[in-house]
Amino acid sequence: ALIGLCAADGVKDDLAALCDIKNYNAPQSWAKVEHSPCEGNWSSTCQYALPGVQCEDGFATHLILANESMTGIFPESLSNMAHMKYVNFYNNQLKGTIPESLGNLNNLYWLDFAYNQLFGTIPASFEQLAPEYVHLQGNYLSGPFDMLLTRNLYDLNLEANSFNGTLSASKISGMTNAEKINLGFNEITGEIPDTFVKCTMLYELKLHSNKLTGTIPTFPKYEVRILDLSNNHLSGTIPSQLSYLTMLEQLQLANNKLTGTIPEALGTAHVLFLNVSGNALTGRIPVALFNIKTTRPLTYDFSHNQLTGEIPSEIRDPLYVDTLKVEDNQLTGTLPEQLAWLEMTHFTCNDNHLTGTIPLDFVNDKYMQWIDVSNNELTGTIPEGWKKTLKKAQKCDFSNNCFDDPEPMCNSNFTRTDNRCPSL
Fold it and tell me: For the segment 340-390, what is each residue's pLDDT rounded down to a tens digit?
C-alpha cells in the first residue's frame, strides 16, 4: 500500500509540473489537446497523449518541447518530476534562472535549454548530476561552468553566453567520454590545459572567441576532426604536432598572436578548412597544402599575416580549392596560371606586391563569385575572356594596379597608382 501511495504521489507531482508548464509556459502544441494535465482525473502521467511527453511505468521521463514558442519563467516545478531523464526546451523564449532544485533530478542525463533567455549562474547542485548531454548555448548565463565538466559527459555546448573562469586541467583529464565540447563566445581566461590529450574520444573542440592565453597544447591523435581556437590571445608557434591529428578536417587559429611559420607538415594532415588569418606568421605558404589527395572542396585563409615568397604553383591536378585568401601579406611574384585548375569561387590576393600580367586562363567563369587583386603591381590588360565573368561576380576589385585598361569593369575602379607604377 505504501508503494502505491508513493507512486500516486509521483504521478501527482508530474501532473502538477505539467499543469504549471501548460498554464505559465503555454507550449503551442498543447493549446488544442483534448485532455489537460490540470483536470485532476488522470491515473498516470501518460494516460492521455500529451505532445512531447513520454513515460515509463506511468511516470514522465522525457519532456521534448523544442521550438514550442514557450514563454514565461523557467518552470521550477520541473524539479519535482523525480523520474525525469530527458528535457529538451530548445529554442523557446523562457526567462529567469535555472532552479537550484533541478540538481535533485538524479536520473537526468539529457538537458537542452539552448536558445532561450535564461540568465544567472549554473546551480551548484549540478555537481550532483552526471549528465551525458548538456546544451545551454545562446542564453545570458554567466559565472563558472566547471561543475558541468563530468566524466559521463559526451556533448557539451555552452556557446554564446558569458561564462568565465578557467579550464580545469584535472576535470578535463577525467572527461574520457567527451566527443564534442563547444565553449565558444564566452569570457574564459587562462591557458588551454594539455590534459585534453586524455580525451581520447574527442572529435570536436571549439574554444573560439574567449580570452585564452598561452600556447597551443597537444591534442589526442586519432579522433579530432574540428579544432577551433580562433579569436583568443594565443601566442607561440603553430605546433607541427598538429599534423599527427590524422582525422583533422577543420583547423581554425585565426586572430591570435601566433608567430613563426606555417608547418609544411600540415599538408599531411589533409585539413580541408584551414584559417590562420590575423596573426603575425612569417615564411612561405606551404606547398604541401596544394598537393592533398582529396575530391572534397578546400578552404584556405592565410590573410593578414606577414607571409613572404610566392603563391604556390606546384598544384596537384585535379584539386578543388573553393576559397583561397592571401590578402594583406608581403607576397611577391606573379599569379600562377595553375590557379585556374582549382575551380575557385573566392580568391583574394589584394594588398601584396604581386607583379606581372594576369594569366589568360586564370579565372573559370563557371565558378568565380568573388575576386580581389587590388593594391598590387599587376600590369598589362585584363583578358577579354574575363569581362563577362567579372560582370557576374558578386565582388570584383582590380583597383590600384598598373593595368592598361582605361575603363572600369565589374563596378571596380581601375586606378593606376603612380607610386606602384614607376614607369608612369
Answer: 777 888 999 999 999 998 887 766 656 788 889 999 999 988 777 676 667
Tell me the backbone φ, ψ of residue 131, rounded to 5 degrees.
-70, 155
Distances (CA, A) of 134 to 65, 205, 417: 16, 15, 56
pLDDT tens-place string over residues 191-201: 999 999 999 99
- Produce one character per residue of 195-224: b if its CB has 16 or more CB atoms within 10 Å, e if not: bbebbeebbbbbbbbbebeeebeebbeebb
Residue 11 burial (10 A CB sphere; 0-12, 13-18, 19+): buried
Q: Which three cell numbers stand for residue 51?
A: 505532445
What the block records as the C-alpha cell of 5 is: 501511495
- The DSSP secondary structure of 357-411, one letter per residue, reads PPPTTS--TTT--EEE--SSEEEE---GGGHHHHHH-SEEE--SBEE---S-BTT
Is the separation of the CB atoms in 358 and 337 below 8 Å? no
Average pLDDT estimate for 157-185? 96
Secondary structure class of 7 (helix, strand, coil) = helix
